[in-house]
Amino acid sequence: MKKRINVLLSVFVFVFTFLSIAMFIIPEIDDQIYSYTQNTLASEYDLLIKNSKERPQDNTAHKTTKKHSKKIELERLKEDIKLYNKRIYLNNQIGLNNLEQNAPLNLIDYGFPNNIYGYLTVDTINLKMAIYLGANEYNMSLGAACLTNTSIPYGNINTNSVICGHCGYGGRKYFRYIENLSSGDLIKITIPFGTKKYKVINKKIIVPSDYKSIQIKKGEDLITLLTCYPYPTSDYRVCVICKAVPPRDNERK
């Protein structure tokens, strides 16, 4: 009997130890897999855009994207983005507080096979994430998402693209460490029209209903990163405001 109890205790200790270790290891593995996936998506995106620009009249499938046969309509997308950004600026971003986050543009209609608009790179915190349009639950489970009724990243004045990300989701960190960004840190946004560079100019904690802090500022070309705070709660938001790097500085970096 005593021997049986000792065996059961040994099994219990083993199982408890195993589960305790797994609680720490599994989320980290999941985060590493997610990071690898994001890097892969970024590489595939770069090839997709490169091929599109090299063979703009070719309607056949690209060698690097065999499942994708539709031509990417970059010029039409560019014009529609400019019209959208101008419209929301002129109408004072009506509907910015609307929780229904439908995508302002369906990128599949323009030839993008997986609806990814681009990707975000922040070397300071080792962050790379695909960017989707419309900060709905599905898009934010995949990566970063541009809040509807804020500007689509493009690079014009009178724009502020509010890019949202979870502050941790499952084992994945997402935007958890944007609170560690400091003034002057570089943010890169790769979109179909090139890579745009921004520098952090301000960081603050806001309440979820503070829409004024994320609105377009006249004459400015801004990117705002947004996530819940403090982790793992959602009582507040970390708001990291970034300003476009002047073209000449862009060329030097």
Description of the molecule:
- With 253 residues, the chain is α+β, with helices and mostly antiparallel strands.
- Helix content is 32%, strand content 23%.
- It has 4 helices and 8 strands.
- It has helices at 2-54, 74-90, 137-142, 247-252; strands at 118-122, 127-133, 144-146, 159-164, 186-191, 194-206, 221-229, 236-244.
- An 8-stranded mixed β-barrel has the order 1-2-3-4-7-8-6-5.
- The longest helix has 53 residues, at 2-54.
- The relative contact order is 0.12.
- Mean pLDDT is 86; it is low at 11-24 and 56-68.
Strand order of the largest sheet: 1-2-3-4-7-8-6-5
Computed CA radius of gyration, to the nearest angstrom? 22 Å
* Unreliable residue runs: 11-24, 56-68
Task: List the total number of helices.
Answer: 4
What's the SSE pattern? Answer: HHEEHEEEEEEH
What attributes characterize this protein structure?
253 residues; eight-stranded mixed beta barrel; globular; alpha+beta
Summarize the structure.
With 253 residues, the protein is an alpha+beta fold.
